[in-house]
Amino acid sequence: MMTVLSYALLILLLLSSAVLILMVLLHKGKGGGLSSMFGGGMSSVASGSSVAEKNLTRITIGVGVIWFACIVAYGLLLRTLV
């Protein structure tokens, strides 16, 4: 029998997983991947990290921390229910 808290944690875990996947996919590549193998690895003049990239990194780390906390909390909750 699952409680309301476990359902809430499960929904938060699923949402944070989806958002974390999207955030990681939004980051620009650092080179050496498939795109550079097929000629897409042209380096631009302004290749430094921008403010948007730094903010995207911070948000990704924040979502990752939320995801990790959900994993731990859900595991502890399941351990107490069984």
From TrEMBL:
Keywords: Cell membrane, Membrane, Protein transport, Translocation, Transmembrane, Transmembrane helix, Transport. GO terms for molecular function: protein-transporting ATPase activity. It holds the Pfam family SecG. The chain crosses the membrane at residues 55-77. Its main location: membrane. InterPro entries: SecG. It comes from Glycomyces luteolus. This is Protein-export membrane protein SecG. PANTHER family: PROTEIN-EXPORT MEMBRANE PROTEIN SECG. The keyword Translocase does not apply. The gene is secG. The lineage of its organism: Bacteria, Bacillati, Actinomycetota, Actinomycetes, Glycomycetales. It is a multi-pass membrane protein.
